[in-house]
Amino acid sequence: TGSSRPQRMLKAVQKNATKGDPKSVISAIDYYCRHKEWAMNVGDEKGLILDSVLTEVNPSTALELGTYCGYSTVRIARLLSPGSKLITIEFNPAFAAVARQIIAYAGLQDKVTLVEGPSGDLIPKMKERFGIKSFDFVFLDHWKDRYVPDTKLLEDCGLLRKGTVLLADNVICPGAPEYLKYVRNSPRYESQYYKSNLEYTKVEDGLEKSVFLG
Ligand SMILES: O=C(NCCc1nnc(-c2ccc3[nH]cnc3c2)[nH]1)c1cc(-c2ccc(F)cc2)cc(O)c1O
Ligand SMILES: [Mg+2]
């Protein structure tokens, strides 16, 4: 049995990035996925939009749904202020195993808690397990048909507060049409679309930023 795409991505990081330098880890993954083998990281173009929204929000507590190999986990954690925390949920143990190593290679393991399991089971446990009152920022990048149920779950569990910013990847490709309808038609959200491209391609994609109004 050969290596997997995430394992080859990890090898590229270990070969081309500098330990403890998040920027070099991000560049090594972007180079590998643009020139060697495509992978479903948010990527460098949408990554700049993620960076700018994060800098604006400067969250103390952040949640990521869909770790994959940890690319956006590193992008988010590198911009967090000291003492801030990022919790990231990953369903697939093989993805989680690679992500842990990439997050550690970037030197960001103290800012990140990676939890393995289905988001639907873990979200209701956030308060009791991690002492979270509410999230300042949520990055949705997991299975696109989970965006709506998990947003509703975050509301029902009291994990969103007035001003919490949700940022959703892939609202065009692969697409999350029900999610766009939900946040754009709800009086409880103020939404804005950031047009971009699917990672490492010329295909249109974009990020939807939605502020919870309480
Ligand atoms: O499927 C995607 N992302 C999801 C991975 C994931 N990583 N972890 C999860 C998880 C985590 C906790 C969960 N709890 C319950 N389900 C869960 C699923 N899901 C995805 C796919 C594409 C894509 C575009 C065009 C194509 F031709 C093929 C593919 C692009 C992207 O940017 C993506 O993000
Ligand atoms: Mg994505």
Q: Order of SSEs, N→C?
A: HHHEHEHEHHEHEHHEE
Could you give the order of strands across the largest sheet?
3-2-1-4-5-7-6
Which molecules are bound besides the chains? the ligand O=C(NCCc1nnc(-c2ccc3[nH]cnc3c2)[nH]1)c1cc(-c2ccc(F)cc2)cc(O)c1O, magnesium ion
If you average the pLDDT, what whole number results? Answer: 98
Number-wise, the strands total 7
Tell me the Rg in angstroms: 16 Å
Could you name the ranges where pLDDT drops below 50 across 5 or more consecutive residues? none
| Helical amount | 40-55%
The count of helical stretches stands at 10
Shape: globular
Structural class: alpha/beta
Q: Any overview of this molecule?
A:
- It is a single chain.
- By secondary structure, the protein is α/β, with parallel strands linked by helices.
- Helix content is 44%, strand content 23%.
- It has helices at 5-16, 22-35, 43-57, 71-77, 93-105, 119-122, 126-130, 147-156, 171-175, 177-185, and strands spanning 61-65, 85-90, 112-116, 135-140, 160-168, 189-197, 204-212.
- It has a 7-stranded mixed β-sheet, with helices on both faces.
- Helix 1 (5-16) crosses helix 2 (22-35).
- It is globular, with a radius of gyration of 16 Å.
- The mean pLDDT is 98.
- The structure holds the ligand O=C(NCCc1nnc(-c2ccc3[nH]cnc3c2)[nH]1)c1cc(-c2ccc(F)cc2)cc(O)c1O and magnesium ion.
- The ligand O=C(NCCc1nnc(-c2ccc3[nH]cnc3c2)[nH]1)c1cc(-c2ccc(F)cc2)cc(O)c1O is lined by residues 40, 65-66, 68, 89-92, 95, 118-119, 141-143, 146, 169-170, 173-174, 198-199.
